[in-house]
Amino acid sequence: MALLIRPLALADLPAIEEIQRQNPTAAQWPPADYLGYQTLVAERDGEPAGFLAVLSIPPDEVEILNLAVATRFHRQGVGSALLDAAGGRVQFLDVRISNHAALSFYRRHGFQKCGHRRKYYSRPVEDAIMMRREMPR
To answer: What are the residue boundaries of the structural domains of the chain, listed by start?
Structure first.
């Protein structure tokens, strides 16, 4: 049951759509949009278990745009492995203020609040907590 982290393939788009559906607090993008970003897929036993989309910001930063794990793979280290593979010496992300599980997850991984965006999200309208972490050199 080894976990493989690999780049997104066109054949993954239906699985990405299903993973998003299972995670209503994750961003709900049209799956093909992920092809325009650096998107990684975590695969376990040939099955997509989760994904992470990032935007690289030179010289050595990344913004995490979306991270979601299939429900049957929750609490198995998939999200942690994807975060570790995101790259960048400094990582940024936004998370819904009401998403306590995600806030706790990111804090456990060393992210700290660095800002607040009012009415950042729609459906429903909600504030975002901006978070940041520096990776060890």
So the answer is: 3-134
**CATH 3.40.30.10 assigned to 3-134:** no
Buried b (16+ CB within 10 A) or exposed e, 111-134: beeeeeeeebbeeeeeebbbbbbe
Residues 6+ apart with CB under 8 A from 54: 37, 38, 39, 40, 62, 63, 64, 65, 86, 87, 88
Helix, strand or coil, per DSSP, at residue 124: coil
pLDDT digits (tens, 9 = 90+) for 80-101: 999 999 999 999 999 999 999 9
**Torsion angle (degrees, nearest 10) of CA 29, 32, 93, 127:** -10
- Whether the CB-CB separation of 9 and 31 falls below 8 Å is answered with no
pLDDT tens for residues 64-81? 999 999 999 999 999 999
Closest C-alpha among 35, 39, 38 to residue 57? 38
